[in-house]
Amino acid sequence: MALIKFPNKTVNSDVVNPYVNSFFDNFFNDSFISDRLVTRVPAVNIAETEKAYEISLAAPGLQKSDFKINVDKNLITISAEKKEESVSEDKLYSKKEFNFSSFTRSFSLPESVNYNDIEAVYTDGVLQVTVGKKEDAIVAKRLIDVK
C-alpha cells in the first residue's frame, strides 16, 4: 500500500488575495459569531464515592430558582431556564434584545441508587447534585492478608 501526502493548501491559493482566507478565518472564529451559532450546554463532571454519585454542573449566572430537577425511574433530568427582558420606558428603541438561555441534561441512573437520598446545592456557579446509594450497594472495604 502506498501512502500519498496531499498538500494542506491548494497551490497558489494565497497568491490571488492573501487577505481573503485570513478574513474568513477571523470572521468564523470570532467569539461573537460562534457564541450564537453554537448551542451552549453546561459542562458536567460525574464522580462516584463510597456512598453517593456526585454530578457537578457548571452553570454560572443562574439562580437557584432557575433550575428544575426531575427523577423519573432511572433517569435524572437537570434543566434550567433564564429569561431576561430589558425594558426602559423613557427611551424609544428601534432595537430591543432579549436574553434567553435554557438547557436540559439527562443522565441514566444505576439500579444501586437510593431515590430518597437526592440533594442539590447551587453555589458559586456550580450545581452539585448528590445521589445516594442503597445500603446494599455500598461495598465494605477491608484488608486482605496474603498467606
UniProtKB/TrEMBL annotation:
Pfam families: HSP20 (PF00011). InterPro entries: A-crystallin/Hsp20_dom, HSP20-like_chaperone, Small_HSP. It comes from the Bacteria. Residues 35-147 form the SHSP domain. Belongs to the small heat shock protein (HSP20) family. This is Hsp20/alpha crystallin family protein. It comes from Sphingobacterium phlebotomi.
